[in-house]
Design goal:
It is built from 12 helices and 11 strands. It has 350 residues and is α/β, with parallel strands linked by helices. It has a domain at 1-52 and 62-87 and 242-350: Alpha-Beta Barrel (TIM Barrel), CATH 3.20.20. The strands form 2 sheets. Strands 1, 2, 3, 4, 7, 8, 9, 10 and 11 form a 9-stranded parallel beta sheet that branches. Strand 2 (54-57), helix 2 and strand 3 (89-92) form a beta-alpha-beta unit. The relative contact order is 0.16. One of its GO terms (molecular function) is oxidoreductase activity, acting on paired donors, with incorporation or reduction of molecular oxygen.
């Protein structure tokens, strides 16, 4: 068998047919809710060595449960990863520049990481969750206020990242002769997370990219990606879509439950409003185990894992696809996905 193929051939290729490299870029999520930052730096380096194009990390103050978890400061971690890698793009998936951060500070953080990474940074933002804001004393308002805050925040972040000196008084934020004196090397794009048509349209009107989690590809295209692209087209803007999906790689359900130990609260009721991960852990553990497992895509081997992401590279039309895998052995998973899954996904995209 030629070196360009695998012992099992996901691509359906004929013998000796080389894999093609498509324009789609493939990301690895470093789970800050599951592993400590020193381990995640090594995961990021390994992801680059294994062929991933992008490394992402979520910005959490609290994790989803309190008994098997972590929650490090993603901005410090990005500085370390910027120095430990040379090629991969870096992106928070996502940060919330609305409450515990002034949007000007997020612009400064993004510019700093962009300089440390020699222009490899993408700024992913979202409207947030109470678990990251309420523990520090911030009220977590409804969607109407959060999206209004995001509109103001984007004005500040875009302006500062573009080199402007800002003097403005908004309803939520103030800037007084604010300017970045360590500006980014180039243009830092701002991508916004959206799960429905209102946020997707807002992203198309105000941002350079969209981040969306895909459960049903057709529904995601209809309710999120199409509204985003239509709104961007209306202002003559280019579009970029990052599609994400959580997948659990495990040989059986017991192993899947072990792999999900740090993430099981993510599927508990009230996750957007609860501030204490102990509460989410209690709610998750009160649920039937199969109910939680049923809320994830669970695969038994690498072939099934590749198939889980196949719609994201073929049907959704994403420019970036984020591989988000829970497993009991992340190091081996990164290596095997890089060697055996990424080539198949790139071939399908092409």
């Amino acid at each position: 068998m030629p070196e360009s193929c695998h012992s099992w051939c996901l691509t359906g290729c004929r013998p000796h047919r080389p894999h093609r490299v498509a324009r789609v870029k493939l990301a690895w999520l470093c789970s800050h809710e599951s592993y400590q930052p020193e381990a995640l730096v090594q995961h990021a380096v390994l992801a680059e060595q294994s062929g991933f194009d992008v490394v992402t990390g979520a910005d959490h103050f609290h994790p989803w449960v309190d008994d098997a978890s972590a929650a490090s400061f993603v901005w410090t971690w990005f500085g370390a990863v910027a120095q430990a890698t040379t090629r991969v793009q870096l992106a928070p998936s996502v940060t919330t520049p609305l409450f515990r951060y002034h949007p000007g500070l997020i612009a400064q953080a993004a510019a700093t990481v962009d300089r440390l990474s020699n222009g490899r940074f993408i700024l992913g933002v979202g409207t947030g969750e109470a678990i990251n804001e309420a523990p520090l004393g911030y009220e977590f308002p409804g969607y109407t206020e959060r999206i209004a805050r995001m509109r103001e925040a984007l004005v500040i972040m875009h302006g500062l990242l573009a080199g402007e000196k800002l003097d403005l008084q908004g309803e939520y934020y103030t800037a007084r002769t604010a300017k970045l004196y360590s500006p980014p090397i180039g243009r830092v794009p701002v991508w916004m997370a959206a799960g429905g048509p209102k946020s997707a349209t807002f992203a198309g009107e105000n941002c350079e990219g969209l981040i969306t989690s895909v459960k049903d590809p057709d529904e995601t295209v209809a309710k999120v990606i199409s509204p985003y692209r239509e709104a961007a087209a209306a202002r003559g803007a280019d579009t970029t879509v990052m599609a994400t999906r959580w997948v659990v790689l495990a040989g059986d359900d017991d192993e899947a439950w072990e792999a999900l130990a740090a993430m099981r609260g993510l599927r508990a009721p009230g996750r957007l409003e609860v501030a204490d991960p102990a509460v989410l852990r209690e709610r998750a553990d009160a649920m039937d185990r199969q109910e939680i497992l049923s809320k994830y895509t669970i695969v038994r081997d690498l072939e099934q894992l590749a198939e889980a992401y196949r719609p994201l590279v073929r049907d959704v039309g994403a420019d970036y696809v984020a591989i988000q895998v829970a497993s009991t052995d992340p190091v081996t998973t990164i290596q095997k996905v890089g060697a055996e899954v990424l080539p198949a996904l790139r071939d399908w995209a092409a």
